[in-house]
Design goal:
homodimer
Chain lengths: 350, 350
């Protein structure tokens, strides 16, 4: 089966060059056909610079681009010909099974919710991302799924309960974690701790049928004590952005300190390849893309600063998601109403 | 002038040994007299193990200890003889000008608010801590003050405006930062971004007379783009704990990766002292203590895992705070009502 994926060739800081390069990396590796969405002449010029199997590539003309600084709703209304709107149109019409964009998160979420729509019973679509973590016990997979990492800044407790359900399904299917440990991000592990929101969410999670391991302190995320970290989108976005800034600051501090002494310089030279490995692991941008979960089709938000490798990874993620039929699994498993026990898996007709 | 400081000898994971050792480090360095609060026989045994100028040390008997897992209010009611309650009593009576404890944050906050009381006009006392950061422009001081980092999990916009005022005063006086750059922690820099809470707080901060630089993404904190990061206590606690866990995970990953190859091992050996420096800088526990601001006297929460050096640093912080007469400055500067412009500094009688 060839998986059809639409890719926003114009979104992100490194578009279209790195986007097209990422597609070139993905094509030999994955059973995909790609539709590059954007200005045809610009895309064709990039296609000319890269070696691609053109029999598996099409171009969909989209003369406009939505900028990062534009109001999502206004931009979507005014720019019907934007790469984002055209790409989502392909998804809606079934011409693509997934859409990858490194463009504006807000516009992508608003547009996807409007065009593709939410899975029945899902209160809010949610943005999930993988954060690297330690894995001292060997139980985890080296990553924690952070959900919501920015789609919903103000949440109700029932949203958090659904994020947990969707996150657990994602971790099980996409990361291969059996019975994922779901933690509620909180200021302490004790049951009675936290804001009004998390206290209510705690009760819902207890009766969710998930492997809910209780409250998790934020330090439990990099330690890999949980597989799925559930929080509102404000908290999750703060964690994600802090992790990005912190890992960069730390690596730059390491470089500066090493370069300030002769043994440090020499040590840095010798350990150079080790450092590159670590830098790669701890840069959240390396993961490639964050899926919006809870929609009727897969939309992956690639980091605004995505390079070719990140785009390749986002495409890989789409393939696995579709192979696992995860949208259907979400449909079958989601709580209709927010707090009722989940129906048996596979109950709905194919 | 000798500064009188009460120190909870029983609070924290490493009490009383590291606490008393910290006092021994502080005494030759700072113009203080110290009252060690706790079980007299236990403290005396520790005093016997260390060289201290005993003419500047007294012991205040407190037979009980409040544990980390106890309910703060219940523990305070039941354990009138706890080191925490006795220490706060010394502060209330004026027998000490500051109190340092590595014990339960919740009990310390509840106890301090009850016994010492809030500064008139302060809506909520707040916990502030210093996070290490880069300083690429040379404008900052290598640290960002994170306020609130855990005292108030549910906040009103007016609380955040007051946190900003208190944080700005702290940064100016304690860190020597002129006109501190105050940022509101948010999911994006654009004015219209964020939760209902931060949107309202934004408007209050704009008219605060502070050097409000607008919304700050969490990545701006480690980058050192602001001096004071204002947020609710849930968000701040998540940032603080995440930073702790993340820096530990990263250092352990670095160690593991270096040790897995011969050049890495050699490089790590050569650069050993550089690594120690970096580890120290990026471990938030190294800062020594987080002050509660907005109370009528200084209470410093030392990290639960504080070692002697952390306690010494907490005592240093108390000295500077009292020398700068910061409680009085807060009294004079705080907005009575939350959003009125601040009165001229030094307006009240001494």
């Amino acid at each position: 089966m060839e998986i059809k994926i639409a890719v926003d060739a114009m979104g992100g800081d490194n578009a279209p060059g790195e986007i097209v390069r990422g597609c070139a990396l993905a094509l030999p590796e994955f059973p995909v056909s790609l539709t590059l969405v954007g200005k045809t002449d610009v895309i064709n010029a990039e296609l000319g610079r890269n070696k691609l199997d053109l029999s598996r590539v099409t171009v969909a003309e989209a003369p406009e681009v939505i900028g990062f600084d534009e109001s999502p709703t206004a931009a979507l209304r005014q720019k019907k010909g934007s790469s984002l709107a055209v790409g989502l149109g392909l998804l809606k019409d079934g011409a693509a099974g997934a859409f990858v964009s490194a463009g504006s998160t807000g516009a992508l979420l608003a547009g996807a919710t409007l065009s593709v729509g939410r899975i029945k019973g899902v209160e809010r679509p949610v943005l999930a991302t993988l954060l690297p973590c330690g894995n001292p016990t060997g139980v985890g997979c080296g990553y924690v799924l952070l959900i919501d990492c920015g789609a919903n800044v103000d949440c109700k407790p029932s949203y958090l309960a659904q994020f947990a359900q969707m996150g657990s399904l994602y971790a099980e299917n996409m990361l291969g974690v059996k019975s994922p440990r779901v933690g509620l991000v909180n200021v302490g592990t004790e049951r009675e701790k936290g804001s009004a929101l998390v206290k209510e969410a705690y009760a819902l999670l207890e009766s969710s049928g998930l492997n809910f391991t209780g409250n998790a302190e934020a330090s439990d995320i990099p330690r890999g004590k949980i597989d799925v970290a559930v929080c509102d989108g404000f908290t999750g976005n703060v964690i994600l952005k802090f992790a990005e800034g912190f890992s960069k600051a730390m690596m730059s501090e390491i470089k500066g300190t090493l370069m300030s002494s002769v043994p440090g310089k020499l040590g840095g030279l010798l350990a150079g390849s080790s450092f590159k490995k670590i830098k790669k692991k701890f840069d959240p941008a390396e993961v490639g893309g964050a899926p919006f979960l809870g929609l009727n089709a897969l939309v992956v938000k690639a980091h605004g600063g995505s390079d070719a490798n990140a785009i390749r990874n986002a495409i890989r993620q789409c393939c696995l998601f579709i192979e696992k039929d995860l949208t259907k699994k979400m449909e079958n498993n989601i709580n209709h109403g927010g707090s009722a026990p989940k129906p048996p898996q596979g109950a709905s007709a194919p």
